[in-house]
């Protein structure tokens, strides 16, 4: 069973390489990529179900046990992230590249999407510090290529900001890994978690945790958001959906893993700071969604807002808060894919990014009105849609920890997030038709509507089937927060050696 753990990473890697050689056949390339990611999703789901019935799966490469060899671990948290990510990448590739399909394949765009997916999945599965740096670099190098494949000045400017800030974040991550290795003498997550509690100088631990907070925070757009709106606004629909679904979520995942498993002792410093940063991030997102009429930039700031919610839950350092953060993180991967599919489709139909040009669209495409209202209610956390269970748990965690300012901001900014999208919705249905009449609406292909409809169904299903998903997120929370639960489940031999 442990050998299957490499498949969610190996399949997209091999597929990305094969696509290089069959790029002249666009139909075959697309079918092969979709099929590969669909199989990867099913394998990940199978492994997740197996883990929930037993214990985490580990794969020691070369037969070398931790802490000497490279180790992958499939626990409820990592496999939940892998399954959700593989699913949305399947839909993103199925969405296609429209009229630029042949040109995109000729420039190896599908291959780089799959290589980015390899980095994302590897970041979720790896169980050692240096390997997470390697996987981050695989992900970021692919994203650098994807974001620079364009000819506009706006795209070049966005790419420069994106590349520079992510290089700085990678340097901080490498610095943190070096400092943590010097302090503990090991790179394996379980071993580091065990040894860091024995360190006498807790000030050094706090300083190192701050380095990781900046490194992962820059990837997640936690306060350091400058790269995100410009980058997402210039990307095509499928790439914007890919970045929104995965890029910031990997940083959020790493923060959850590190600050529940490793840096969990000095919570009065580290987690209090996270709550503060989450509040600032929510305010940035709220101002952003209200300030623009460009629907792509409104969508980009919605991503920033959601990161604030997730980190607020983590910062409460309570079981309910962390459980809510994991649930909301999983849900947000799906919701943000849906958001950018819808926003990208609206831009394609109208040819404009200003929402004032959407007037009268509802008469032409009533389907988008239905999909959009489901999306708004899910983002706002209205029951029984998918955003509600996670926000309710974060709400509970904030109350338990006395984070009433963060709680108030979460409620206010959730309402602002809904209002910013309702402006677009009401313009589609009730807005003045003066500008709308000037627009020649295009038709969106039926298969793309089907993909959007599938995501709408999943968003509704996540809300209705929340008790089932809670079993997975609760297991993940227990494993990472309970004293030595992760170490005992993954590498019990390390505990025996220390004794």
TrEMBL record:
Gene giving rise to this polypeptide: mrpD
Membrane protein topology class: Multi-pass membrane protein
Domain NADH:quinone oxidoreductase/Mrp antiporter transmembrane: 128-416
Name of protein: Antiporter subunit mnhD2
UniProt similarity note: Belongs to the CPA3 antiporters (TC 2.A.63) subunit D family.
Any one biological process term the GO annotation gives: ATP synthesis coupled electron transport
Protein localization: Cell membrane; Membrane
Keyword list, A-Z: Antiport, Cell membrane, Ion transport, Membrane, Transmembrane, Transmembrane helix, Transport
